[in-house]
Amino acid sequence: MALDLGVDGKRLRRWLRRQQHQGDRRLAWHGHRMAWRIEPGLAWDLKREFAVEVLGASFEDVWGPHAWLNWHAQGAGRPKRTSRRTSSSLVLPNWLEFGLYSDAAVRGQLEVGPYKFINTIASEQLGGNGAALRVVLRADDHLAGPDHTSPIDEGDDSAYGAGGLDDELAALLSLALTCRFRSGGITREGWEGGDPAGDPVEHHHRRPYLALARGGSLLPGGPATARLEDAEGLLHQYSAIQPGDAIAAARAARQFADALWFADLDPRVAWIKLVGAIESAAVRWHAAQERDDVALLRRNRKRVYNAIRDCDDDVVCRVAKDLAGTLKATDKFKDFILEFDPGPPEDRPDGTGRLDWSELEGALDRIYEHRSRDLHAGIAFPSPLCEPVPRGGGPPPERFPAIAAEAFGGSWMAEDLPMYFHTFVHIVGGALRRWISTLRSTPTE
């Protein structure tokens, strides 16, 4: 239903006519003698523009990830879309549904902001693909259509998330519940004047492949149970944080979700993704600070420091300065985890399979070194960290329990194998959730 803009004065009507005469494509359809009755979302946008241009009001331009922006627009009072029209030739549906796939046993349903997570009650017997369509995500659109009328003068990937709002929310669901979720894309579209139940579509849908574990999973215990209501707190917190924090949180969640999804298909990639998840958040959290480069070298590269410490001071300082960039990257990674460390899991093994949490910093050093060698030298993560955890009775071991191991031409001492993948998942997921819980909120206006 159209919304009366409120013929509350000649200034508003004159301004609308001026916009129309100046070629505002959003008003091109409107006849000269027609009453000003405009789609609610567009009316909301025009009122704000009128307030800024004519009345001198001030509104902050907001940018951020797609799902966060849409939720923010709803919170700011922008009505959901009721018309397919946009400022360009592009037409958009009023609402969309997406299929989210998982190997978890999903329980409950969840409705937050403009989003509804609907449990499909899928069979828990998995076939050749390890994931089933277990959740339908329904999203109302509260955003104006994209502006394709302005030229692109320079590149800008500051809010780039490499996916749509469905990918963003599936990743946040994975982070909140430590379960695998991945979107296959759109399954239904709701159009102005169309079937109120929407139109089923398949052209944008691709069922994601989840590799079945062979001989055991890197995530012991099998598929988890995902209670959708348990994600409500993190999702609400995410919707309220600052735009820059939302971008970092969305990127970190996406990396974390990728790590879980690829764990049994390509463990090397999964390890790299987990480290990347922390780095995505740590770059935001650990803003650049002035540091003592020599102290940083002494702390993070003791062997290098010991080799040059008897040299002239200017040599030591020059080497420390040259290495500071790489050391700060390591420092951010470790500092973030140590700051937001979730602590040991509740259910722990006994004996040599238990990680000594007092030595966590050293273990993180070794994990980061493995990641860097894999990325920059092609030396893969140690094979024992990419294989299923040896199981017996009780909780799975948190770290490699033997003295040494060898495989495929490589050999490693126990200190080279500081923790198993599932242990690092616990640390990374817990740290990211704790970080998000500390982020301050942003006003909707």
Briefly characterize the structure.
About 40% of the residues lie in helices and about 10% in strands. It is α+β, with helices and mostly antiparallel strands and about 450 residues long.
Please bin the fraction of helical residues. Answer: 25-40%
Rg over alpha carbons: 26 Å
The overall pLDDT, averaged over residues, is: 84
SSE order, as H and E? Answer: EHEHHEEEEEHEEEHHHHHHHEEH
Please tally the β strands and state the result.
12
Features:
445 residues; alpha+beta; 12 helices; disordered N terminus
Describe, in plain words, how this protein is organized in 3D.
The chain has helices at residues 10-21, 40-53, 66-76, 165-177, 232-240, 243-262, 267-285, 293-300, 302-308, 313-340, 360-377, 421-438, and strands at 3-4, 37-38, 95-102, 105-107, 110-112, 115-119, 132-140, 182-190, 199-200, 225-227, 404-407, 410-413. By secondary structure, it is of the alpha+beta class. Strands 5-6-7-3-8-9 form a six-stranded antiparallel sheet. A two-stranded antiparallel sheet has the order 1-2. Helix 7 (267-285) runs parallel beside helix 12 (421-438) and helix 8 (293-300) packs across helix 10 (313-340). It starts with a strand and ends in a 7-residue tail after the last helix.
Annotate the secondary structure layout.
Layout: E1 3-4, H1 10-21, E2 37-38, H2 40-53, H3 66-76, E3 95-102, E4 105-107, E5 110-112, E6 115-119, E7 132-140, H4 165-177, E8 182-190, E9 199-200, E10 225-227, H5 232-240, H6 243-262, H7 267-285, H8 293-300, H9 302-308, H10 313-340, H11 360-377, E11 404-407, E12 410-413, H12 421-438
Parallel strand pairs: 4-10
Antiparallel strand pairs: 1-2, 3-7, 3-8, 5-6, 6-7, 8-9, 11-12
Helix pairs in contact: 4-6, 6-7, 6-12, 7-10, 7-11, 7-12, 8-9, 8-10, 10-11, 10-12
